[in-house]
Each structure stands twice: as C-alpha cells, then as structure tokens.
Amino acid sequence: IKDMVNEALIIAVRDDRVAIEWQDIWKAKSLKELGPPEDVDYIQRERHAVAIHEASHAVTAHLLGAHRRIDMVSIEKRASTLGMVKSMGQEERFTQWRSEMETDIMVSLASLAGERMFFAGDNSSGVSGDLSSASTVAALMHGSFGMGKGLASAMNTRESGMGGPANPVSTALREQREPIEESLEVLYERVTLLLDENQDKILELAA
C-alpha cells in the first residue's frame, strides 16, 4: 500500500498537483500490477474494437462470475496485450467446480461473440489467446477433471518414444476433440445470447 501511494504521489507531482486523487491511486495500481503501458495510439476503429472486446469480457464476468470479482479493466496496450480484464477470487480456494469452469470459458469466448455481434459477423485476431484459454480449460474438464461425457483421464499418460509424461491438454484435444468442440459451441451460444440481451451494457462500458 505504501509503495502504491508513493507511486500515486509521483503521478500527482508530475501533473503539477499538490494532492493525490483517486485517479492517481488507480494509475499507480495499474502500473504496479499490469506493468507500464506502451505509448501508442490506436486508430479509431481498432480502439473501438478493443473496447468492445474487453467490455464483452467484463460484462460477461460481472453477470456470471460469482466466484470472481472484476478488479481492473483496461484498453491500454502493454507488451503482450491490447487490453485486459483482471479478476480476483472472492476467497482462497483449492478446487473449482464444473459450473465455475464453464463460466470461465464463457468469459473467454465473450470476446469472439462480442466482436462478431458488433462487427457484422467479423472478428479480429485478438481473440486467439481467449480461444486458447477456453480450449485449455475445456480439455482439462473432459480429459482430467471428470467433467465431460467420458470417465477416462489423460493425466499421467505416457508419450510413446522417450516415455516422458504426456501433456494432458494436448492428449485430450487429440483424443476427445469432438466432445470438447461440442461443449465449446454450447457455451459460445449461451454467451452470445447473454451478450445480445445486454448490448446496451457493452456499449456503455466500451464508450
């Protein structure tokens, strides 16, 4: 807390002010937790697209994510991201339930659903990381956590050849591709319907 307040003071002094304001605390928190933003300007269409992308994540997380609380939402470009919705757990947990993991997948898929909804079926390459996250969680649900149709587990399987441990995500995506894809499609349709019912909230937050 002391470190963050000191950073906020630096921000206020640089802005030629004698008192710290809430916006300084917020900027300091973002800097400490997310790293410094890059000094770049989006073109207008891309700024709007990134805002829609992140707003879709945030609205979905807010409406569905009872097990997580939204901490920060940003469209400032950083080293590896164009924007970010940062969440935090409500309490310390050591297990996660299927319904919660499905919520996490829907939050990930919300960017694709939101972009297609507001850009006439089109979407950017910025959804690639979200699709990877959704696929990883779905693969673990089906291949390791007993949350799919089958009971077989991909955990502790061995790769042929060198005999090292297999990656359970890769194994599940290879051996259970069809049921994983079906689950993702169902959750995508659910989040699309949710966003369609809350378009006004997405536009308000994006603006």
Low-confidence stretches: none
Report strand order across the widest sheet: 1-2
Largest sheet: 2 strands, antiparallel
Helix content: 55-70%
DSSP strand count: 2
Q: Can you give the mean pLDDT?
A: 87
- Roughly what fraction of the amino acids lie in strands? 5-15%
Return the structural class.
mainly alpha
Q: What overall form do the CA principal axes indicate? A: globular
The gist of it:
The chain has 8 helices and 2 strands. The chain has a two-stranded antiparallel ribbon.
Task: Summarize the topology.
Layout: H1 2-14, H2 22-34, H3 44-64, E1 68-74, E2 84-89, H4 98-118, H5 128-143, H6 168-175, H7 177-197, H8 199-206
Antiparallel strand pairs: 1-2
Walk me through this protein's architecture.
By secondary structure, this protein is mostly helical. Helices cover about 60% and strands about 5% of the residues. It contains eight helices and two strands; from the N terminus they run αααββααααα. The protein has a two-stranded antiparallel ribbon with strand order 1-2. It is globular. The relative contact order is 0.12.
Task: Supply database-style keywords.
mainly alpha, two-stranded antiparallel ribbon, 8 helices, 58% helix, globular
